[in-house]
Amino acid sequence: MMRRKYWALAVLCASLVFLLYNRSFNICSTGLCSDRRIQPVRPVQAAETLPATTTRDPTPKSCLPAGMRVARTSAGFDMVVLEKDDIVSNDIYTKHEWEIARTEDMARRAGTTLPPGGTFLDIGANIGYYTLLFAQKGFNVIAVEAMTRNRQAIMGSLCLNPQLQERVTIVPAALVAPWEVDKGHCVVKSTNYKVNIGNGFLNCKQGESCQSGDENCQTVPVKTLDTVLEDLAPSSVDVVKMDVEVYECHVLAGGGSLFAHFQPKLLQIETAWGNTSACVHEQAEKHGYREQKFGGDTAMVRIGHEAPELQQAPADIGTSTQASSSTTLDPAPIFKQSVISTSTLSATPAGISDSMRNMCVPAGMRVAAVSAGFDMVVFSEDDLVSSEIVATQRWEIDNLEQMASKAGTTLPPGGTFLDIGANLGYYTLLFAQKGFNVIAVEAMTRNRQAIMGSLCLNPQLQERVTIVPAALVAPWEVDKGHCVVKSTNYKVNIGNGFLNCKQGESCQSGDENCQTVPVKTLDTVLEDLAPSSVDVVKMDVEVYECNVLAGGGSLFTHFHPKLLQIETAWGNASHCVQAAALQYGYSTKKVAGDTAMVSKPL
Hints:
Keywords: Signal
Largest sheet: 7 strands, mixed
InterPro entries: FkbM_mtfrase, SAM-dependent_MTase, SAM-dependent_MTases_sf
Signal peptide: 1-24
Radius of gyration: 29 Å
CATH architecture of the largest domain: 3-Layer(aba) Sandwich
CATH class of the largest domain: Alpha Beta
Oligomer: single chain
Protein name: Methyltransferase FkbM domain-containing protein
Pfam family, one: Methyltransf_21
């Protein structure tokens, strides 16, 4: 009897051992334990953020998609950015921020404060800088982004910052107007394949498609904002950022519930292009919001939720990053947004459709036809170059051959045209139309916006033009980092900028014709862009020609362009040009207020 009891007890013990072993095996097979010890998963605290410094591998392979890299932000987190050809990525990688350094900056520019928490709606999230910034602050985020590559970057960033993952919901669609939903899909295409591939322009026209092998174009699903909000049913929508390249009016047309049901405290909407300002103004009046313009955006603040002590806060917080940006993502605070008047639009060439005008023409500008056969964007008023182009359909020359003939030479058959002081881009467009690649150096944001508007009107020229958003200076001025550029005449020549790099120079608050700009030497620009050749040069930088030449020796030693046209009407520019001609083997010829330099035969 005793033997049978021992036997039963032994069987019971053996069974328990087997059961425990089998249980341990099943758990380990799922990867939840190591070395036969179960490792607890550490819960993420609700408001946990990354420390100011981190020792983890900055480029974990598991998080980094091909063609991307990791950037450190000034807000203290790492994020995935595109490796090349993208303005936003480049700014974040080099300056550690995009437009703002922290969420509070967005509110201060609008003259208000942020709510303590809630939901941030990021429409046109791009690679997710604002999304991550608000998620780090503790907000839940709805990030609407149509472009697959951008979403991959966002997901890579969330992989790097797993404590933020549960706060972010990504909507992989483009937001459209109700009448466009039946299409099911639209086409989104990068606005510039060389410098802005993360910036998408949506086209919902019938029959639009992508060319085979075009990595910067894709067909995307579409929804209305109302549908997204109904599907996700957030408990609140408290702060909104919208930047969708001229499609803002369409998004608002399909998003009535945003105001009727949620009434966010603060919205920041890009209004630099098309008739977006009018749509935003209409919504503000209809739903009880005040408007605050800054740069290329308009803030809508719900009336009764302002912060009076902040209403006079400077409108340029965070715009130092924008000053180094080019093309469409470039809303530096130097010009007043306004809806183009009917009288202005009546001067627009008949060949430009209303939709094209709305899509391409920034507020305060208009379209002019030029004798060379293309249309371009010019200022509506107070600008000598613009008025001349509207009145005579030209500026200085009708065609490239005139530039060469005035210098007593001929143009090379093609190559690269370097336009230093591009102004509104008349020469830039003329050379691009002729088949040249163009490097357009222009410090003034307003001028660059006009150039980008012209490239929008002439999309066949876009891939030929690279815009450098900086002022060129002498080597001894580079350490300043920034200088001040100011219109030479506020009444008749606002597009003509005079550069001042003296210590302590600044712009007066509210001066729309003055801005702080980044600086580079010409040698640095040529080294960075590495063109295969530089064949023709135009330089017009208001007395700064000698400084540019002082920092541009490689222009002659490495590239030796055939023809240069340099303004020498002011200062000692004539002496610098003569010295360069003598040193590098050029003949010179005076042409009105310019000097032409023509390379002597070797």
